[in-house]
Write a structure and sequence with these properties.
The protein has 242 residues and is of the alpha/beta class. It has a single domain, classed as TIM Barrel (Alpha-Beta Barrel). Helix content is 29%, strand content 18%. It is built from 8 helices and 9 strands. Helix 1 packs parallel to helix 3. The longest helix is centred in the middle third of the chain and has 14 residues. The radius of gyration is 17 Å and the shape is globular. The relative contact order is 0.16. The chain binds SN-glycerol-3-phosphate (G3P) and magnesium ion. The site of SN-glycerol-3-phosphate has 10 residues, from strand 2.
Length: 242
Amino acid sequence: MTAPLPPLTIIGHRGARGLAPENTLAGIETALRLGVDGVEFDVQRHPDGGLFLLHDLTLERTTNGQGLAAAQPFDTLRRLDAGHGERVPTLHEALDLIDRRGLVNIELKTWNGCAAAVAEVIRAQMAQGWDAAQFIVSSFHLPELQRFCSALPEVPVAALYCGVPLAGAAELATLGAAQVHLADEFVDADYVAAAAQNGRPAWAYTVNTPEAAQRLTTLGITGIFTDHPERFLRPVATAPVQ
Ligand code: G3P
Ligand code: MG
């Protein structure tokens, strides 16, 4: 029998990717109704300036569109089917839906302007009552993340790595990162300990079984991104997501 998990922060990955189309409003709502601590989704900036939720730079895998998302007029992008009749949401729509019901991890997927545009949206939400601590902004593109820090230093940021950086955890301090998000297959206990020593928790993606979570907790991981929040949580509301 697997030992009980220590308390872990549970974040719905791309909404609740195992249960609903990824990066859609239905996915986000599904995760929140399951009682996640927060949701993660991927954000891109369209050349016209609009911010939208999509993981890939291209459309084929998750929508009925084709080619580069940035090459489509924004209106066309918004009319695509992102799965089960869901639309490609804007960042505004996602935040309106969440309405402060959980942590929001915005992952910056594009650069050269994405950080500044996201900072502007978050600043506007903070003026409407959101707390800076209700957001975590992350990216694999660390210079873009640094630009976000300069634009809105009060919002916590997380460095994303899919490997173990040669520079070690010291880079987190250079960046001013509050935490670090690591690929599950490259979680290194020494790196996690060095980050934790300086008060920076490490979370892992993508973790879909309690057994995997159990292993990661022994390496010092304190939060997980999961496609299947239902495997870690009990529902807090039973109404089906339309
Ligand atoms: O933010 C955690 C995780 O989402 C990073 O990888 O490729 O799923 O966006 P990816
Ligand atoms: Mg992501």
